Amino acid sequence: xxxxxxxxxxxxxxxxxxxxxxxxxxxxxxxxxxxxxxxxxxxxxxxxxxxxxxxxxxxxxxxxxxxxxxxxxxxxxxxxxxxxxxxxxxxxxxxxxxxxxxxxxxxxxxxxxxxxxxxxxxxxxxxxxxxxxxxxxxxxxxxxxxxxxxxxxxxxxxxxxxxxxxxxxxxxxxxxxxxxxxxxxxxxxxxxxxxxxxxxxxxxxxxxxxxxxxxxxxxxxxxxxxxxxxxxxxxxxx
Length: 238
Ligand SMILES: [Zn+2]
Description:
It contains 6 helices and 11 strands. By secondary structure, the chain is of the alpha+beta class. The protein has one domain.
């Protein structure tokens, strides 16, 4: 009986120590702060707003001859948009021009030249009345795009966009103007407006340095949104 009482007393003495010492210590966090994933704000270059995230085959759903489609590549680009945030989009272009496109978009991003959106023409967003063949929808949405199997504006021959040799940037700020025709409708070319291309723009200078032609320097009409670099005579692809 005396022995039992001694054991009981020992238990009473040590129980709080077990609680405050061993048990609690066991549950101390073992992970160092560096192991937690870092949260980047939405709209930063590490966590951009995704404007387009489709596959190359989705981006080539619209009709085009296979020998032209096989030359196209998908370039993912980051850009500073009009909301002051960094967005991520995609551009379809002849694979041989992919490096030029990356370089131009890098310059635009560094200069904070705003680009509204960069979404391929075959994105669901531009699907209307059973097809994607509506450049007007892309222009009205102020969307920047490259490859588009279509005719030239108000003409009967294939555009250089149909070969992946051309890019249109911010159509609303940089319209196509031929006499009374302005596309997209209602657009105004104002060199003071952000996102407008001028001979002084780093985007224009970079394209020209890389051997591209700017439609803003044409004489018969002005196509301020348009840049092209023709690699092969289009006739050779027909
Ligand atoms: Zn164009």
